[in-house]
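Deliverable D4.2, example record:
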Amino acid sequence: MPVSTAIERAPLEQILIETDAPVEYQGKVSEPANLLITLCGISRIKGIEHEETNRITTTNAESFFSI
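Output generated by the structure prediction step:
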């Protein structure tokens, strides 16, 4: 049986996407726009459209930060 990842096991309603940018990663400077790469990766792992991942994680952040 394959080992599952934290993203596979975590409910999407409990995931926040954030950045520590600017930092260097794999020889490139990371920036906040790279959140889209993470969002698309989560969508792929979860097997859902990135618009749905965006909607849910945005709601999560708004709730967490009371905005």
